[in-house]
Amino acid sequence: MARITYAFGSSHGPTNRTPAEEWTRLGEGDKNDPRFDFNAHLATVRSGMEAELKLEKRQERGAALQVALAELRDSVAKASVDIIIVISNPHRIWSDDSQAVFGVMRSATFAVALPDNQPFNPDDRLKDRSSRPKPKTTDKAGHPELANWLISGLIGRGFDIACKDSLREGEAIDEAFSFVYDLLPQETTTPVVPFMLSRYLPYQATAGRCVALGTALRETIESWDSSLTVGLMASGGLSHQLIDENLDARVIAGLTSGDFSDLTEITAAQLNGAPGTPEILNWMTVASAMKPVKMTLIDYIPAFRSLAGTGHGLAFGIWG
Predict the structure, then answer these.
(1) Sign of torsion over alpha carbons 12, 16, 22, 23
(2) What is the Cα–Cα distance from 208 to 101, expressed in whole angstroms?
(3) What is the pLDDT of residue 238?
(4) For residue 117, what is the enclosing H or E element?
(5) What is d(CA 93, CA 70) in angstroms, rounded to the nearest whole number?
(6) Which residues neighbour 279 within 8 Å (Cβ) at sequence distance 6 or greater?
(7) Are 90 and 176 in contact (CB under 8 A)?
(8) For residues 8 and 231, is the Cβ–Cβ distance under 8 A?
(9) What CATH number does residue 61 fall under?
C-alpha cells in the first residue's frame, strides 16, 4: 500500500522573492489593495511598528528567510518521495469558473510559468487578468491515477471533491501550487498532484472540516494499492496581508504539539482577518494527515512592510 513518508509547509508569495531592502516597496502597494482598508489599519496598529521597519531589522529577517528556505530545500531533497500532493488555494479566479471548496487537478501534465526575474509589482492586482501578458511555460508531470484515487476515496469518506482536467490556453497553474518547484531539486521529475482548497468566502471550509479532511486524506492514500511513497505540502500562510502574530503563534503551537483541539476552534472571522490568512487551513489539513507525527518548526518570521502592520507571517516546517 502507498505510504505518506514526509510532509512540509512553506509560505509562498512576493516576500520570498523580494530583497528585504524592498519590502517597504511592497508596503506601498498595500495602500492600493482593494481587499482591505489600509488607512483603517494604520490608525489602529500597535505601537513600535517603526522599529519593525528599520532596515537592519528587515535585513536580519531577510537573512533568516533565506536560511529557512535553504534548510527546507535540503530536507525536501533528502526526503526523495515518489509523488507530492500540494495543498493550496487557487489565487487567480476567473469570473466564469465554477468554484468548489475542495478539488483535485488530475491531468497528466500541466503548465508551470518560468521565472521572469522581474520585481513583483503589487499594482498588478488591480489589472484585469485578460490584459496581462501570457507567461512563458514549461510542462510538469501530474499523476492522474493518484488524483482519481483521491477523488473517489474522499467522496467515499464524505468529502465532495471537484476535479480539474486542464488549464485555459496559454495559462500556467497558480504559483501557489508551482512554488513547490522552488523547493525541489532543479532536475526533479517528481509528479505533483495539486489539491485545491478554497480560501474564499462564502465557499470556505471551517478549520474543523480541514482537520477532518486531513484524516480522510491519509486513509485514502494508505488504501491505494501502490508501493509508491507520497509527500504532502502545505503551500501558503500564515497570516497575510496583515500580520496577526497572536493567531500565527496559536496555529504553530497546535501544529508542533499535535493537539488540534484549539485549532478547530479558530473561527471564520479570525481566519479572515486578512485576505491571505485562510491559507492556514492548508497547514491544518497536512498536520492532521501526518498525525501522530508532529511538525518541527524551521522558523517563523514576521516580515512587516508598512506602518499599518501589513506584511507576511512567514512559516516553514517539516513532518517526518
Answers:
(1) positive
(2) 14
(3) 97
(4) none
(5) 31
(6) 88, 89, 199, 235, 236, 237, 238, 240
(7) yes
(8) yes
(9) 3.40.830.10
Number of domains present in the structure of the chain: 1
Q: What would the mean pLDDT of 277-287 be, rounded to a whole number?
A: 97
* d(C-alpha 208, C-alpha 37), whole Å: 29
Angle at the Cα of 9 from the Cα atoms of 265 and 67, rounded to 5 degrees: 125
- Cell output for 145: 491515477
Containing structural domain, residue 242: 3-319
Answer for the pair 230, 221: CB distance below 8 angstroms, yes or no.
Answer: yes
Q: Round to whole Å and give the CA distance between 283 and 186.
A: 25
Under 8 Å between Cβ of 172 and 111: yes
Omega cis (within 30) before 115 = no
Residue 42: exposure state from Cβ atoms within 10 A (0-12, 13-18, ≥19)? middle
On the CB side of 181, CA atoms within 13 Å amount to 25
Nearest 5°: CA angle at 9, between 316 and 176? 110
Tell me, what DSSP letter sits at residue 62? H
pLDDT mean over 287-298: 98
Residue 97 binned pLDDT confidence (cut-offs 50, 70, 90): confident
- Which cell numbers in the block locate residue 4? 505518506
Contact 102, 196 (CB under 8 A): yes
Q: Half-sphere exposure of residue 120, counting CA atoms within 13 Å on the CB side?
A: 21
Task: Band the pLDDT of 180: cuts 50, 70, 90.
Answer: very high
The DSSP symbol for 276 reads T
Cell numbers found for residue 7 = 510532509
Q: What's the pLDDT score for residue 206?
A: 96
Give the separation between CA 206 and CA 203, rounded to whole angstroms: 10
Q: How far is CA 138 from CA 27, 33, 170, in A?
A: 32, 31, 11
Q: By percentage, how much of the chain surpasses pLDDT 90? A: 78
